[in-house]
Design a protein that fits this description.
alpha+beta, Pdz3 Domain, elongated
Length: about 450
Protein backbone atom coordinates (compact mmCIF):
# COMPACT_ATOMS: atom_id res chain seq x y z
CA UNK A 1 0.00 0.00 0.00
CA UNK A 2 1.30 3.44 -0.93
CA UNK A 3 0.59 6.49 1.17
CA UNK A 4 -0.80 8.40 -1.83
CA UNK A 5 -3.48 5.74 -2.24
CA UNK A 6 -5.17 7.08 0.88
CA UNK A 7 -6.12 10.30 -0.94
CA UNK A 8 -8.61 9.02 -3.52
CA UNK A 9 -9.83 6.09 -1.43
CA UNK A 10 -11.00 7.89 1.66
CA UNK A 11 -12.01 11.38 0.70
CA UNK A 12 -8.60 12.94 1.15
CA UNK A 13 -5.55 12.47 3.30
CA UNK A 14 -6.72 15.13 5.74
CA UNK A 15 -9.98 13.28 6.40
CA UNK A 16 -8.08 10.05 7.04
CA UNK A 17 -5.67 11.71 9.46
CA UNK A 18 -8.47 13.52 11.31
CA UNK A 19 -10.44 10.29 11.76
CA UNK A 20 -7.33 8.49 13.01
CA UNK A 21 -6.39 11.28 15.44
CA UNK A 22 -9.93 11.49 16.82
CA UNK A 23 -10.18 7.72 17.38
CA UNK A 24 -6.72 7.47 18.92
CA UNK A 25 -7.17 10.56 21.10
CA UNK A 26 -10.41 9.25 22.59
CA UNK A 27 -8.83 5.88 23.38
CA UNK A 28 -5.61 7.37 24.79
CA UNK A 29 -7.49 9.93 26.88
CA UNK A 30 -9.62 7.20 28.46
CA UNK A 31 -6.57 4.97 29.04
CA UNK A 32 -4.52 7.69 30.70
CA UNK A 33 -7.49 8.96 32.70
CA UNK A 34 -7.79 5.47 34.14
CA UNK A 35 -4.19 5.72 35.40
CA UNK A 36 -4.80 9.24 36.69
CA UNK A 37 -8.08 8.79 38.55
CA UNK A 38 -7.24 5.43 40.16
CA UNK A 39 -3.83 6.81 41.14
CA UNK A 40 -5.56 9.79 42.73
CA UNK A 41 -7.98 7.51 44.57
CA UNK A 42 -4.97 5.53 45.83
CA UNK A 43 -3.24 8.68 47.11
CA UNK A 44 -0.67 8.99 44.29
CA UNK A 45 -0.14 12.51 42.95
CA UNK A 46 -0.08 13.11 39.21
CA UNK A 47 2.21 15.94 38.15
CA UNK A 48 1.38 15.89 34.42
CA UNK A 49 -1.50 14.52 32.34
CA UNK A 50 -0.49 14.79 28.69
CA UNK A 51 -2.51 14.01 25.60
CA UNK A 52 0.19 13.67 22.96
CA UNK A 53 3.96 14.07 23.00
CA UNK A 54 6.42 16.76 22.00
CA UNK A 55 5.94 20.53 22.11
CA UNK A 56 3.07 21.61 24.37
CA UNK A 57 0.24 23.40 22.57
CA UNK A 58 -1.95 24.06 25.59
CA UNK A 59 -1.54 23.57 29.33
CA UNK A 60 -3.23 24.49 32.58
CA UNK A 61 -2.68 23.48 36.20
CA UNK A 62 -5.61 22.47 38.39
CA UNK A 63 -6.06 23.09 42.10
CA UNK A 64 -4.45 19.73 42.94
CA UNK A 65 -1.23 20.74 41.20
CA UNK A 66 -1.66 18.50 38.14
CA UNK A 67 -0.74 20.07 34.81
CA UNK A 68 -3.14 19.09 32.03
CA UNK A 69 -1.66 19.55 28.59
CA UNK A 70 -2.17 18.86 24.90
CA UNK A 71 1.02 18.26 22.90
CA UNK A 72 1.74 18.52 19.19
CA UNK A 73 2.22 14.81 18.38
CA UNK A 74 -1.17 13.11 18.91
CA UNK A 75 0.12 9.54 18.86
CA UNK A 76 -0.25 8.63 22.51
CA UNK A 77 -0.16 10.22 25.94
CA UNK A 78 1.07 9.74 29.46
CA UNK A 79 0.59 10.53 33.14
CA UNK A 80 3.74 11.53 35.00
CA UNK A 81 3.35 10.80 38.69
CA UNK A 82 5.36 12.26 41.55
CA UNK A 83 8.74 10.51 41.65
CA UNK A 84 8.69 9.46 37.98
CA UNK A 85 11.83 10.24 36.00
CA UNK A 86 10.03 10.16 32.64
CA UNK A 87 6.76 9.43 30.86
CA UNK A 88 7.45 5.68 31.11
CA UNK A 89 7.33 5.89 34.94
CA UNK A 90 11.03 5.29 35.42
CA UNK A 91 12.14 5.85 39.00
CA UNK A 92 13.74 9.23 39.83
CA UNK A 93 15.95 7.99 42.65
CA UNK A 94 17.33 11.44 43.46
CA UNK A 95 13.94 13.07 43.76
CA UNK A 96 12.51 10.23 45.84
CA UNK A 97 15.55 10.23 48.15
CA UNK A 98 14.98 13.93 48.91
CA UNK A 99 11.31 13.44 49.85
CA UNK A 100 9.95 13.24 53.36
CA UNK A 101 7.70 10.32 54.33
CA UNK A 102 4.34 11.94 53.41
CA UNK A 103 5.58 13.03 49.97
CA UNK A 104 7.17 9.65 49.36
CA UNK A 105 3.78 8.04 50.04
CA UNK A 106 2.26 10.36 47.41
CA UNK A 107 4.81 9.25 44.79
CA UNK A 108 4.32 6.33 42.42
CA UNK A 109 7.40 4.51 43.67
CA UNK A 110 6.78 5.15 47.38
CA UNK A 111 3.14 4.09 47.42
CA UNK A 112 2.09 0.63 48.67
CA UNK A 113 2.35 -2.19 46.14
CA UNK A 114 -1.43 -2.57 45.89
CA UNK A 115 -1.82 1.12 45.02
CA UNK A 116 0.84 0.99 42.33
CA UNK A 117 -0.55 -2.19 40.78
CA UNK A 118 -4.10 -0.81 40.76
CA UNK A 119 -2.94 2.42 39.14
CA UNK A 120 -1.06 0.59 36.40
CA UNK A 121 -3.88 -1.88 35.70
CA UNK A 122 -6.45 0.92 35.51
CA UNK A 123 -5.33 2.07 32.05
CA UNK A 124 -6.20 -1.16 30.20
CA UNK A 125 -9.23 -1.64 32.46
CA UNK A 126 -10.64 1.72 31.40
CA UNK A 127 -10.08 0.79 27.74
CA UNK A 128 -12.13 -2.36 28.25
CA UNK A 129 -14.74 -0.35 30.16
CA UNK A 130 -15.03 2.12 27.26
CA UNK A 131 -15.53 -0.76 24.83
CA UNK A 132 -18.13 -2.38 27.09
CA UNK A 133 -20.03 0.91 27.44
CA UNK A 134 -20.14 1.48 23.68
CA UNK A 135 -21.07 -2.11 22.81
CA UNK A 136 -23.78 -2.21 25.49
CA UNK A 137 -25.13 1.10 24.21
CA UNK A 138 -25.42 -0.36 20.72
CA UNK A 139 -27.36 -3.37 22.00
CA UNK A 140 -29.67 -1.13 24.05
CA UNK A 141 -30.34 1.28 21.17
CA UNK A 142 -30.49 -1.16 18.26
CA UNK A 143 -32.01 -4.03 20.23
CA UNK A 144 -31.57 -7.76 19.74
CA UNK A 145 -33.61 -10.11 17.58
CA UNK A 146 -36.74 -11.58 19.14
CA UNK A 147 -36.90 -15.31 19.74
CA UNK A 148 -39.56 -15.77 17.05
CA UNK A 149 -38.80 -15.29 13.30
CA UNK A 150 -40.81 -12.10 12.77
CA UNK A 151 -40.18 -9.60 9.99
CA UNK A 152 -39.02 -6.23 11.25
CA UNK A 153 -37.94 -4.36 8.12
CA UNK A 154 -37.93 -6.02 4.66
CA UNK A 155 -34.86 -5.21 2.54
CA UNK A 156 -35.28 -3.73 -0.95
CA UNK A 157 -34.87 -6.53 -3.51
CA UNK A 158 -35.47 -6.93 -7.24
CA UNK A 159 -39.18 -7.61 -7.91
CA UNK A 160 -39.12 -11.39 -8.39
CA UNK A 161 -41.11 -12.59 -5.36
CA UNK A 162 -44.08 -11.68 -3.20
CA UNK A 163 -43.05 -9.23 -0.54
CA UNK A 164 -42.70 -9.96 3.13
CA UNK A 165 -44.28 -7.22 5.25
CA UNK A 166 -43.34 -5.79 8.66
CA UNK A 167 -44.93 -7.87 11.40
CA UNK A 168 -45.18 -11.09 9.36
CA UNK A 169 -44.56 -14.07 11.63
CA UNK A 170 -42.82 -16.85 9.66
CA UNK A 171 -44.45 -20.14 10.66
CA UNK A 172 -42.75 -22.35 8.06
CA UNK A 173 -40.30 -22.15 5.15
CA UNK A 174 -40.35 -24.66 2.28
CA UNK A 175 -42.82 -26.75 4.26
CA UNK A 176 -40.64 -26.97 7.38
CA UNK A 177 -41.98 -25.45 10.61
CA UNK A 178 -39.94 -22.63 12.14
CA UNK A 179 -41.20 -22.22 15.72
CA UNK A 180 -38.26 -20.05 16.77
CA UNK A 181 -35.50 -17.95 15.21
CA UNK A 182 -32.83 -20.60 15.80
CA UNK A 183 -34.83 -23.21 13.89
CA UNK A 184 -35.58 -20.68 11.16
CA UNK A 185 -31.87 -19.97 10.69
CA UNK A 186 -31.04 -23.70 10.63
CA UNK A 187 -33.77 -24.48 8.10
CA UNK A 188 -33.09 -21.58 5.75
CA UNK A 189 -29.33 -22.12 5.91
CA UNK A 190 -29.77 -25.53 4.26
CA UNK A 191 -32.02 -24.47 1.37
CA UNK A 192 -30.81 -24.75 -2.21
CA UNK A 193 -30.61 -21.35 -3.93
CA UNK A 194 -33.74 -20.40 -5.86
CA UNK A 195 -35.56 -17.29 -7.01
CA UNK A 196 -38.46 -17.78 -4.57
CA UNK A 197 -39.28 -19.92 -1.55
CA UNK A 198 -42.74 -20.81 -0.14
CA UNK A 199 -43.42 -19.16 3.23
CA UNK A 200 -46.31 -19.91 5.55
CA UNK A 201 -46.81 -16.75 7.54
CA UNK A 202 -49.14 -15.26 10.12
CA UNK A 203 -50.29 -11.87 8.85
CA UNK A 204 -53.00 -9.77 10.47
CA UNK A 205 -54.23 -12.73 12.48
CA UNK A 206 -54.55 -15.22 9.62
CA UNK A 207 -52.24 -17.79 8.07
CA UNK A 208 -51.33 -17.42 4.40
CA UNK A 209 -48.78 -18.96 2.03
CA UNK A 210 -46.68 -16.76 -0.28
CA UNK A 211 -43.77 -17.28 -2.64
CA UNK A 212 -41.32 -14.98 -0.91
CA UNK A 213 -37.68 -14.10 -1.55
CA UNK A 214 -34.87 -16.55 -0.93
CA UNK A 215 -34.05 -16.13 2.82
CA UNK A 216 -30.37 -15.32 2.22
CA UNK A 217 -30.34 -13.34 -1.02
CA UNK A 218 -27.13 -11.83 -2.47
CA UNK A 219 -27.78 -8.53 -0.70
CA UNK A 220 -24.95 -6.57 0.93
CA UNK A 221 -25.44 -6.09 4.66
CA UNK A 222 -22.01 -4.59 5.33
CA UNK A 223 -18.78 -3.69 3.54
CA UNK A 224 -15.43 -4.24 5.27
CA UNK A 225 -13.26 -1.09 5.53
CA UNK A 226 -10.33 -1.13 3.12
CA UNK A 227 -11.71 -4.14 1.23
CA UNK A 228 -11.91 -4.75 -2.49
CA UNK A 229 -15.66 -4.11 -2.32
CA UNK A 230 -15.20 -0.71 -0.68
CA UNK A 231 -12.56 0.25 -3.25
CA UNK A 232 -15.07 -0.20 -6.10
CA UNK A 233 -17.90 1.60 -4.32
CA UNK A 234 -20.14 -1.27 -3.23
CA UNK A 235 -22.37 -0.31 -0.31
CA UNK A 236 -24.93 -1.66 2.13
CA UNK A 237 -28.17 -2.51 0.36
CA UNK A 238 -26.60 -3.41 -3.00
CA UNK A 239 -27.88 -6.66 -4.50
CA UNK A 240 -25.48 -8.69 -6.68
CA UNK A 241 -27.76 -10.28 -9.26
CA UNK A 242 -25.05 -11.78 -11.52
CA UNK A 243 -21.31 -12.47 -11.67
CA UNK A 244 -19.66 -12.52 -15.09
CA UNK A 245 -23.15 -12.80 -16.60
CA UNK A 246 -24.18 -15.81 -14.48
CA UNK A 247 -27.29 -15.14 -12.35
CA UNK A 248 -26.82 -15.27 -8.57
CA UNK A 249 -29.76 -16.05 -6.29
CA UNK A 250 -28.09 -16.55 -2.90
CA UNK A 251 -25.27 -14.89 -1.00
CA UNK A 252 -23.66 -18.30 -0.57
CA UNK A 253 -23.31 -18.55 -4.35
CA UNK A 254 -21.57 -15.16 -4.45
CA UNK A 255 -19.21 -16.25 -1.67
CA UNK A 256 -18.34 -19.47 -3.52
CA UNK A 257 -17.65 -17.67 -6.79
CA UNK A 258 -15.40 -15.11 -5.12
CA UNK A 259 -13.62 -17.82 -3.13
CA UNK A 260 -12.89 -19.82 -6.27
CA UNK A 261 -11.72 -16.80 -8.28
CA UNK A 262 -8.04 -17.14 -7.39
CA UNK A 263 -7.86 -13.36 -7.31
CA UNK A 264 -8.98 -12.92 -10.92
CA UNK A 265 -11.22 -9.93 -11.74
CA UNK A 266 -14.97 -10.50 -11.55
CA UNK A 267 -17.70 -8.44 -13.22
CA UNK A 268 -20.57 -7.98 -10.75
CA UNK A 269 -23.98 -6.87 -11.93
CA UNK A 270 -25.36 -4.84 -9.04
CA UNK A 271 -29.04 -3.94 -8.55
CA UNK A 272 -30.00 -0.79 -6.69
CA UNK A 273 -33.44 0.80 -6.37
CA UNK A 274 -32.41 3.41 -8.95
CA UNK A 275 -31.12 0.94 -11.53
CA UNK A 276 -28.53 -1.71 -12.38
CA UNK A 277 -24.82 -1.29 -13.09
CA UNK A 278 -21.73 -3.44 -13.66
CA UNK A 279 -18.79 -3.26 -11.24
CA UNK A 280 -15.35 -4.81 -11.81
CA UNK A 281 -13.99 -6.30 -8.58
CA UNK A 282 -10.67 -8.02 -7.85
CA UNK A 283 -10.92 -10.32 -4.79
CA UNK A 284 -8.14 -10.22 -2.22
CA UNK A 285 -6.48 -12.98 -0.25
CA UNK A 286 -7.55 -12.74 3.40
CA UNK A 287 -6.72 -14.75 6.55
CA UNK A 288 -10.13 -15.19 8.15
CA UNK A 289 -10.57 -16.21 11.83
CA UNK A 290 -12.76 -19.29 12.33
CA UNK A 291 -15.45 -19.57 15.06
CA UNK A 292 -13.78 -22.69 16.49
CA UNK A 293 -10.34 -21.03 16.51
CA UNK A 294 -7.58 -20.83 13.97
CA UNK A 295 -7.63 -19.20 10.57
CA UNK A 296 -8.67 -19.98 7.03
CA UNK A 297 -7.15 -18.30 3.97
CA UNK A 298 -9.72 -17.26 1.39
CA UNK A 299 -10.19 -14.98 -1.59
CA UNK A 300 -12.72 -12.40 -0.45
CA UNK A 301 -14.51 -9.29 -1.66
CA UNK A 302 -15.11 -7.86 1.82
CA UNK A 303 -18.91 -8.23 1.74
CA UNK A 304 -21.23 -9.55 4.45
CA UNK A 305 -24.70 -10.87 3.73
CA UNK A 306 -27.80 -11.48 5.78
CA UNK A 307 -31.49 -12.31 5.72
CA UNK A 308 -33.95 -10.86 3.23
CA UNK A 309 -35.38 -8.91 6.15
CA UNK A 310 -34.15 -7.39 9.38
CA UNK A 311 -35.76 -9.44 12.17
CA UNK A 312 -38.05 -7.79 14.67
CA UNK A 313 -36.08 -6.67 17.70
CA UNK A 314 -36.60 -6.17 21.41
CA UNK A 315 -34.75 -4.01 23.89
CA UNK A 316 -32.52 -6.07 26.20
CA UNK A 317 -32.20 -5.28 29.88
CA UNK A 318 -29.02 -3.62 31.18
CA UNK A 319 -27.64 -6.92 32.50
CA UNK A 320 -28.21 -8.70 29.17
CA UNK A 321 -26.69 -5.81 27.24
CA UNK A 322 -23.64 -5.85 29.52
CA UNK A 323 -23.27 -9.59 29.04
CA UNK A 324 -23.45 -9.24 25.27
CA UNK A 325 -20.89 -6.43 25.40
CA UNK A 326 -18.47 -8.52 27.47
CA UNK A 327 -18.94 -11.41 25.05
CA UNK A 328 -18.06 -9.06 22.17
CA UNK A 329 -14.90 -7.93 23.98
CA UNK A 330 -13.91 -11.53 24.66
CA UNK A 331 -14.37 -12.44 20.99
CA UNK A 332 -12.07 -9.55 19.96
CA UNK A 333 -9.43 -10.58 22.51
CA UNK A 334 -9.42 -14.26 21.54
CA UNK A 335 -9.35 -13.46 17.81
CA UNK A 336 -6.47 -10.99 18.33
CA UNK A 337 -4.41 -13.45 20.36
CA UNK A 338 -5.12 -16.24 17.89
CA UNK A 339 -4.10 -14.01 14.99
CA UNK A 340 -0.87 -12.98 16.72
CA UNK A 341 0.03 -16.58 17.51
CA UNK A 342 -0.65 -17.71 13.94
CA UNK A 343 1.51 -14.88 12.59
CA UNK A 344 4.35 -15.85 14.93
CA UNK A 345 4.16 -19.50 13.88
CA UNK A 346 3.92 -18.57 10.21
CA UNK A 347 0.47 -20.10 9.76
CA UNK A 348 -0.84 -16.83 8.34
CA UNK A 349 0.85 -13.87 6.71
CA UNK A 350 2.51 -11.26 8.94
CA UNK A 351 0.89 -8.68 6.64
CA UNK A 352 -2.16 -9.03 8.89
CA UNK A 353 -0.33 -6.79 11.39
CA UNK A 354 -1.25 -3.19 10.67
CA UNK A 355 0.88 -0.16 11.50
CA UNK A 356 -0.13 3.49 11.92
CA UNK A 357 -0.84 4.00 8.21
CA UNK A 358 -3.02 0.90 8.05
CA UNK A 359 -4.94 1.90 11.18
CA UNK A 360 -5.33 5.44 9.84
CA UNK A 361 -6.60 4.01 6.57
CA UNK A 362 -9.17 1.89 8.40
CA UNK A 363 -10.18 4.85 10.59
CA UNK A 364 -10.86 7.00 7.56
CA UNK A 365 -12.75 4.22 5.79
CA UNK A 366 -14.97 3.49 8.78
CA UNK A 367 -15.64 7.20 9.34
CA UNK A 368 -17.08 7.43 5.82
CA UNK A 369 -19.67 4.79 6.82
CA UNK A 370 -21.21 7.06 9.46
CA UNK A 371 -20.93 7.93 13.13
CA UNK A 372 -22.32 4.62 14.40
CA UNK A 373 -19.74 2.60 12.47
CA UNK A 374 -16.97 4.92 13.63
CA UNK A 375 -18.07 4.60 17.25
CA UNK A 376 -18.10 0.79 16.94
CA UNK A 377 -14.59 0.95 15.47
CA UNK A 378 -13.41 3.03 18.45
CA UNK A 379 -14.75 0.32 20.78
CA UNK A 380 -12.94 -2.42 18.85
CA UNK A 381 -9.70 -0.42 18.77
CA UNK A 382 -10.00 0.40 22.47
CA UNK A 383 -10.17 -3.31 23.26
CA UNK A 384 -7.09 -3.92 21.11
CA UNK A 385 -5.17 -1.11 22.85
CA UNK A 386 -6.15 -2.42 26.28
CA UNK A 387 -5.00 -5.91 25.33
CA UNK A 388 -1.72 -4.70 23.83
CA UNK A 389 -0.89 -2.74 26.98
CA UNK A 390 -1.26 -5.90 29.05
CA UNK A 391 1.50 -7.69 27.16
CA UNK A 392 4.40 -8.39 29.58
CA UNK A 393 6.79 -6.03 27.83
CA UNK A 394 8.75 -3.45 29.87
CA UNK A 395 7.53 0.09 29.06
CA UNK A 396 3.96 -1.24 28.64
CA UNK A 397 1.56 -1.57 31.57
CA UNK A 398 1.89 -5.35 31.45
CA UNK A 399 5.64 -5.05 32.00
CA UNK A 400 5.10 -2.87 35.07
CA UNK A 401 2.61 -5.41 36.41
CA UNK A 402 5.24 -8.12 35.99
CA UNK A 403 7.66 -5.99 38.03
CA UNK A 404 4.99 -5.61 40.72
CA UNK A 405 4.38 -9.37 40.71
CA UNK A 406 8.14 -9.89 41.18
CA UNK A 407 8.07 -7.53 44.14
CA UNK A 408 5.05 -9.31 45.63
CA UNK A 409 6.84 -12.68 45.42
CA UNK A 410 10.37 -11.63 46.45
CA UNK A 411 9.48 -8.81 48.83
CA UNK A 412 11.58 -6.25 46.95
CA UNK A 413 11.35 -4.48 43.56
CA UNK A 414 13.87 -5.12 40.78
CA UNK A 415 17.04 -3.08 41.15
CA UNK A 416 17.31 0.29 39.43
CA UNK A 417 19.99 -1.13 37.12
CA UNK A 418 17.82 -4.11 36.15
CA UNK A 419 14.89 -1.79 35.53
CA UNK A 420 16.95 0.45 33.26
CA UNK A 421 18.17 -2.54 31.23
CA UNK A 422 14.73 -4.12 30.98
CA UNK A 423 13.01 -0.83 30.11
CA UNK A 424 15.61 -0.17 27.41
CA UNK A 425 15.10 -3.64 25.98
CA UNK A 426 11.34 -3.24 26.08
CA UNK A 427 11.51 0.11 24.32
CA UNK A 428 13.78 -1.34 21.65
CA UNK A 429 11.39 -4.27 21.10
CA UNK A 430 8.42 -1.94 20.87
CA UNK A 431 10.16 0.32 18.37
CA UNK A 432 11.19 -2.70 16.28
CA UNK A 433 7.57 -3.89 16.23
CA UNK A 434 6.39 -0.44 15.15
CA UNK A 435 8.94 -0.33 12.33
CA UNK A 436 7.89 -3.82 11.22
CA UNK A 437 4.20 -2.85 11.26
CA UNK A 438 4.97 0.35 9.33
CA UNK A 439 6.86 -1.67 6.72
CA UNK A 440 3.75 -3.87 6.37
CA UNK A 441 1.71 -0.74 5.67
CA UNK A 442 4.07 0.32 2.92
CA UNK A 443 5.07 -3.01 1.35
CA UNK A 444 2.22 -5.49 1.83
CA UNK A 445 -0.39 -5.71 -0.95
Amino acid sequence: MELVSLIPSFGGLVWTIVAFVVALSVIVAVHEYGHYIVGRWCGIHAEVFSLGFGPVLYARKDHRGTRWQVAALPFGGYVKFLGDADAASGRDAGAIGAMDAPDRRRSMHGAPLWARAATVAAGPAFNFALSALIFAGFFLVQGVATDTPTVGTPKPLPAQAEALLPGDRVLAVAGIDTPDLTTFMDVTGKLEPSATVPYRILRDGREIVIDGPFPFPPVVDAVSPGSAAMDVGLAKGDVVVAVDGTPVQAFAELREIVGASGGQPLLLTVWRPDGTQDVALVPRRVDLPLPEGGFETRWMAGLSGGLAFAPETRTPGPAEAAGLALSQIWDIITASLSGLWHMITGAISSCNLQGPIGIAETSGAVATLGFASFLWFIAVLSTAVGLMNLFPVPVLDGGHLVFHAWEAVTGRPPSDRALRVLMGAGLAALLALMVFALSNDLLCP
